[in-house]
């Protein structure tokens, strides 16, 4: 199945541009979320270099962010670049569990393989298994209790576009493959 970033932009913008004044935009080397300002009248989610999976990841962060956080650059999160110590990596992973669980669900809806992101190539990521398990447990929670409203809207739109099953089927989520 082909995954063109232009399709992802179209799907996201169809779902959220009017209701939330937010657009998904192909960006440069680094993704960033910028709220509307005096120069740009809409909120913009910039994803890295047209990579489809980067777009899904950044969308997932937007879907997790509440209204107040969506008024802040990069949702007000701290970001320490690649090269984090094991302790800082654990802190990074704590804020990544929900977004990556949603990203995994969206990836499945789009028929795209998901890989957990540790985003610490030059650092000491340590044992990734607990993080992957935590992401999986969050997927299970969403499967049992439902996704937040905007995340469910995006999931359904991806299912419709790609012709995938319109349900979260836990048997399709294998923690050993991420």
TrEMBL record:
For this protein, the record's InterPro entries field holds: EpmC
One GO MF term, please?
Answer: translation elongation factor activity
> Would you say which domain of life the source belongs to?
Bacteria
Task: For this UniProt record, give its keywords in alphabetical order, as a comma-separated list.
Answer: Elongation factor, Protein biosynthesis
Pfam families tied to this protein: EpmC
Q: What is this protein called?
A: Elongation factor P hydroxylase
> From which source organism is this entry?
Conservatibacter flavescens
